[in-house]
Predict the 3D structure of the following.
Amino acid sequence: MCIRDRFYIGQNTRGFWVAHEADGRSGGLFLFKRSAVRFAHKSAPAGCAIMFLNESFELDLENRGSRLVESLTAAIDVAERVAPRLVTFLAMAHIEWRKLSAQIYRAIVSERRNRAAIERELFHGQYTLSSKNDDLPIP
């Protein structure tokens, strides 16, 4: 494992993902965590460490990541100066949307676990339940 070459990955204060090399030679802003990880894997020599940080940190060098995120950050800065209430509302809506999507995901996972338990109990793993309603959303 390399001691000198290591990448830090975390989120900035805006919630975008930051990949930053420890020596400060490269880094970038990304919309998705997997994009930051992919950037670190491509930029770092094989076997180097990737550390995920819990605290937010900012990119303090030229962005070699997503230009879209760079533009979004600039737009958010302008919007905060011009219409702070709108930005606050949109931030809260974004947070609530993430909570709702997490709840939906947990419900789907729970339904799948329950179905698997029923199949194991009733059919001892030999058959699976299926119906015409399998593709419909859970009410």
